[in-house]
Structures are given as C-alpha cells and as structure tokens.
Amino acid sequence: MTVQTKADKRLAVAWWRRVDATLRIVAAMPLGYAVASLWAMMLARLLPLFTTAATITATLIALALCAGAVMWAYATISGWRAVWTLSLAGFIAAGITWMSISGGGRL
Amino acid sequence: MTVLAALPALAAFLLFGLASDRHHEPRFGRRLPALDALRWRLVGWALLATALVGAIAARGWVFGPVLWAGLAMAGAAASFLWLNLTAARRGMQR
Amino acid sequence: MDVDLGWGSVVKKGFRQSQSTLHTWSGLLLGWVLFIIFVAGTAAYWREPLNRWMRPEAPRVERPVLAMKAAQRFLARKAPDAKTWFITVPTVEGPGTYVFWVPQPDPDAPKGRHRGRRRDTSALVDATGVPVARETRGGDFFYRFHFDLHYMPVIWARWLVGVAAMMMLVAILTGIVTHKKIFKDFFTLRRDKGQRSWLDGHNASAVLGLPFHLMITYTGLVTLATMLMPWATVANYADSTKLFTTLFPTAGEVVRVGHPALLVDLEALVRNGERQLGGPIGFIEVAEPGDAAARITMTGASRASLSTYGTRVAYDGVTGRLLWRSPPPNGAVTTYGAMIGLHAGRFGDLTLRWLYFFCGLGGTVMVASGLVLWTVKRREKLPDPLHPPLGFRIVERLNIAVVAGFPLGCAAFFLANRLLPLATPDRAEREITMLFAAWGSAALAALVLRPKQSWAALLGATAIGLMTVIACDLLVLRPGLGQWIAVSDWPMATVDAVLLVLAIGLAWTARRVARHRPRVLKPRAIRTPTNKALLAEAVAAE
C-alpha cells in the first residue's frame, strides 16, 4: 500500500462506514420485510395444521421474524453479511414455497 | 377478591426493592447479606405466585392471568414510586 | 470485538452496542407518530365513557333493554323498508344505541358514490329513542385516530402506523437487550442528575410496564396483519374471501320476498340469544325488516370474551325461530381473536380498564421520555451548545411540537365540544378542526420560541385548557358536574377528575420547566481538558 495521509484514511473509513450503514438499512427494512413475508408463505404451506390455522400461525410468526430480521441486520458483523444472509434465507423460503404451491395448489 | 391478588403483588415488589442495596442501606443502615437478599427475593416470588392464584380465583382461567399481569405491573410501579419518593424525602438520595 | 472494515479501520462492535444504535434509531425516526398513537390509544380505553361525556345531554342509560326497544321503534319509523338494520346493543357506559341502516338498492340510481353520506343512514339514539342532539365524534375519534390518523387515506395511515408499530417492537426488543442491569436497576431513580435522571425515567416507564408494552405493540401489529402481512394468506388461498368466510361465518344471504310481516320483538329474542351464546349480546343485524323473509343475527358482546371473534346466532325475523349458530372457532382463530381482544381491552371490567389506562399512560411516558432523552443526552455532548447541528434542532423542536402540542390539541378538542353551539353545521368535524388548529399553533410556537419558553407555555396552556373544560362543566353546562356528583353519576364525574389530575400534572411540569436552571455549558473548545484527554490527544497526534 502506498503511503496514505491521515486525511485520506479518515475519508475512506467514513465512506466505508456509510456503505456499511446503508447496507444494513436495506437489509433491515425492505429485505427484512421481504424475508419475513417469504417465510410466512413457506410456513403457511409447511405447518402441519388446518389451512386456516396454518395461515394464521404463519402470519403471527412472520411478524416476529420481521423484527428479528431487523435486529439481525444490525447485530451481524458487517452490512454485507446482513444482506447476503437474509437474501439466502429469503431464497430458500421462496424456493420451498414455489415447490409447495406447484405441487399442491391453493384453496 | 381482587385485593387478595393486588396486595401480595405489591408486597412482592416492595420486598424486591428493599432487598436491593440501593434501597436497603439507607433504611436499615447496613447492606443486606447476599444470602438474606436471596431469601427476601424468594419470598417475593412466592408472593407473586400467590397473587396469580388470587387473580385466577377472582377472574377465572382466561382473565385471571391478564389481571395478574396488570396487578404485577401496578405493584411494581407503586413500589418504585414509594421507595424512591420516600427515599428523597428522607434526603437519602445518592 | 474489533472488526476490520478494510483500509485499516477497526470498529469496536458488540452485540449490545449495535442493538443500542438500532434502539435509538428505530425509536426516534417515528417516535412522534408513536407518541400520538399512544395518547389517542390510551384515551380510547375510555371510548364509551367519553362518547357519553361528550354528549352530556344524553340521559343516562339505566336499562339497556328499554333503550334497545326504543331504538327498534326509531328504526321502524325512520327506515321501515331498509335492506338491513345494524344495531349496536346499548350499554350503561355509553350514550345510547348506535344504529346504522342500508337502504334498499335503487336500480335506477347511477353506480358509484350514490349511497349518500354515512350520516344520512346512521344515528345515535339515546335511551328514550330520540337522536342525540350534540353532534360529535366523541371517544370514537380517539379510537379511530390511533390507527386511521386524520386528513389522509386510511390505507396510508394504517401503513404508517404499522411501520411505526414494527419499529416500536424493534425498539422494545433492542431496549431489553441493551439495558445491561435490567434487574439491578429496576428500582433506580436518580433525581436531578440531568441525562441520567431522564434515562432512569425512561427505563422505569419501559421496564415496569414491559409486559404491557410488548403485548400492545405485537397485538397492534396483529390487528393490522391482514394488511401488513397478507402473504401467508396469498400462499394458501387463491381467493382470500375463502379465509374470511371461515373466520366470519354467516348464515347466508337473505332474499326479500316482498310479503310484509311484522318483525318480532327484539327483547325476548335477545334474552334467548344470551342463553344460546352464554353471554350478553353486543350486535344485532336485521336483514329485510318488515318482510316475511326477515332474519335477525346476533353477535356476542366483545366485553364477554377475550376473543373478539364472537359467536353468532340467527333467528327468523317473524317467528323468532332459531335458524343457525356459528360453528365454534378453531384454536388458531381463537388465538388470533384473543390477541386482538387483548389489544382492545374491551373484555375488562373497571379494574382491568384502569390498569390498561395506567399502562397506556406509562407507554406514553416511555415514548416521550425517550424522545426527550435523545436531546438531553446529546445536549451534554454538544461541541458548541450555542449552535447545535440541524438534526439536533429538528428533534428538539419536533419534540415540543408533538409531545406538548398534541395534548394541547386534545384539550382544545374537549373545549370545542363544550363551547361550540349545538346547531353548528358539521359540528363533529369542526371540533376536530379545533384540535388540529390548536396543534398547528403549538407547532408554530415550538418553531419560533426558545425551547424552554415553548415547553412551559404549551404545557401550561394545556393545563389551562383542561381546567377551563372542567370549569365549563361546573358552571355552564346543565346538567353539569355538580349534577353528576349529586346523582352519583360517577362515570361522568370521573372524566373531569382525571382531566383535573392531568391538568395539575401538566401545570406542575410547566412550572418546573420554567424554573429549570441548566448547568452552564461552555463550548467544548475552551473547556478545561482532563489529563486523560490530553494524553489521548498526544497519542492520536502521532
């Protein structure tokens, strides 16, 4: 690394912090809500209950998951990690839901 | 009937509060030894359990626990205010 | 835990620290919305008593059954050929019977907004069967406001309230995580210590009422769940109405036969219904009254059960024969209904209602003290206290505008209720306009005056406003406060008593603010540094 001035260093850190913070906000709100919604869909299909019961239970759990996702977005080490872990959780739920719906259909 | 649930709840939180150093020392002149504090707290928990029984007796199995939660919070708040405002009057605030 | 973010920057992170930052932001960003939700929601626990208190001419409902019969007579006079009558069974708490009717569909009328205004097909009928003279939204205003807000489409309002509620839930959970000594500091209240006193107050109001705050926030989200989280429904149902017919079973549609027949007397039917459902009746729906095909459906009162999904029963409207009973709801539906019921608190008797009210006040104090704490904490750390940054100034002014301004608006609302002449056109909406006019003026004052002045002035003005309302009740209103006490009409007198206590509290707070002498803070630059600070600077300068 070439010799960097202190000012350069501080600017770089400030920029990185902003990116990190932005990633976390994106992870928390839009992504967190999306993940909670996808998990709601997956749980609604998978829970071994009557349809109405599964739907209601999945909804109740999803509300808590949304709050949890927001907390995770800030607890985890970096903004990037928040984004990819939540995205992965979302994709898994989306995949399972899609398979379940194409297999069994909806009422 | 409700009173049978309210009073133990209030007493429980007063015990919890008085067992803490902050409120015990100014009133009794010395720190409460850890083992004694534990005993006081256990009695407090027992009183809370009694309050739950009382609340269920007063309002049934569905509304009883709701009443108990409400009375516990009221007891906690009342104890908080009582302990802190009387400490202030005695000029014992740190 | 040190984290290397690259470029040699190392950030001290910890779970508690990260959640503390999240707590501050999720609490602050919509904290002002949460404050008004809490104030209105807490007032809404006294919805029916306020409905009655804001219509003081309405006679007390001594015998709900007689009031209901009077309402049936009113409907038979006013809308004998309606398609459906909706009757909310009167209670001793409220001002009378709320009735609503749907006129027969007019095949010649143009499609769209042709139904006419809601008020033309609804009425509040007092115990004697006469429509109540004083037009006001009453306690219903606070109830509706706390999720529908005002001056905006309800969908927007509910989304805003929903997002705010989710941020509140995050704030509560992160608050628990961040509060290191939650048990040790349970009874701590340090007085006159600036930021630490505010912190103790915020912690106390939050922790002492924690079961309530957690419950009310989560169940609040549950009440809006069909809008906020409909995806489970989408996953399981191609047609969501199928879910709603399971949740709200009906006996089917009623088809008019055009053969007039006398409607059976509701009183006896209500008694039968109470026996069938094992509790009081809350709501009666009469389909095709006056017709041979008339059907009467009754729903159990929400004060009788925790779950708001009341069981229902239907009778033939002419013979009174039992036709249909709703199937018992399954466990999940009951859980869902119970959560909504816990939030609404309608099941409670007086003791439980007061406990809910005090918890609501605690929640309001929690939100308000959190908002103020933010400014107090940062004011102590300002590099230049005379020129604070924009963010700080915005929060400081917004705090005053909302925390002091909205209660002033509510006081103006009550005052308008007492002072506006009965014959004022659009009276109900005018009262609400007064609320927002007062709130707007308060916001202006918050912007223009210095914070200490505006806090004291607005809190004081609210106290004066409330005391004026009480004075009105005592001196001007007939029957007024004196009469209520004389005949032991405690629900009415207690409203004034509570307003008096609030007024005294506000006046005391205003006085304390006006007399507050802050510690003089010099700009950081000329403050005497400690040895530690000097050493740290020397190290950093290397």
How would you sum up this structure in a few lines?
Chain A is mainly alpha-helical. Chain A is built from three helices and no strands. Chains in contact: A-C, B-C.
Q: Features of this protein?
A:
heterotrimer; B: 94 residues; mainly alpha; 87% helix; 0% strand; C: 542 residues; two-stranded antiparallel sheet; 20 helices; 56% helix; 8% strand
Number of helices of chain A: 3
- Sketch the major β-sheet of chain C: 7 strands, antiparallel
How many DSSP-defined strands of chain A?
0
- Main sheet attributes: strand count, strand direction, barrel closure of chain A: none
How many helical elements of chain C? 20
The low-confidence parts of chain C are 6-12
Count of strand segments of chain C:
9
* Beta-strand percent range of chain A: under 5%
Strand order, largest beta sheet of chain C: 5-4-3-6-7-8-9
Low-confidence stretches of chain A: none
**Mind telling me the C-alpha Rg of chain A?**
19 Å
* Oligomeric state as shown: heterotrimer
Q: Mind explaining what this structure looks like?
A:
The complex is a heterotrimer of chains A (107), B (94) and C (542). Chain A has 107 residues and is mainly alpha-helical. Chain A has one domain (26-104). Chain A has helices at residues 6-46, 51-75, 79-104. Chain A is elongated, with a radius of gyration of 19 Å. The model of chain B has no long low-confidence stretch (mean pLDDT 89). The radius of gyration of chain B is 15 Å and the shape is elongated. With 94 residues, chain B is mostly helical. Chain B has three helices and no strands. In chain B, α1 packs across α3 (34-89). Chain C has 542 residues and is α+β, with helices and mostly antiparallel strands. Among the domains of chain C are: 64-135; 382-542, no CATH class. Helices cover 56% and strands 8% of the residues of chain C. Chain C has helices at residues 15-28, 31-44, 47-53, 64-78, 139-148, 154-178, 195-208, 210-223, 225-228, 231-236, 241-247, 266-277, 331-344, 350-379, 390-419, 427-448, 451-476, 481-486, 490-515, 531-540, and strands at 2-4, 10-12, 84-88, 97-102, 122-125, 281-287, 295-300, 312-316, 322-325. In chain C, the strands form two sheets. In chain C, strands 5-4-3-6-7-8-9 form a seven-stranded antiparallel sheet. In chain C, a hairpin with an 8-residue loop joins β3 (84-88) and β4 (97-102). In chain C, α7 (195-208) runs antiparallel to α14 and α15 runs parallel beside α17. Chain C is globular, with a radius of gyration of 28 Å. The two termini of chain C are 25 Å apart. Classes of the chains: A mainly alpha (107), B mainly alpha (94), C alpha+beta (542). The A-C interface holds A 9, 12-13, 16-17, 20, 28, 36-38, 40-45, 49-60, 62-64, 66-67, 70-71, 74-75, 77-78, 97, 101, 105-107 and C 3, 5-9, 11, 13, 15, 18-19, 21-22, 26, 166, 169-170, 173-174, 177, 218, 221-222, 225, 228-229, 231-239, 242-243, 246-247, 330-333, 335-336, 339.
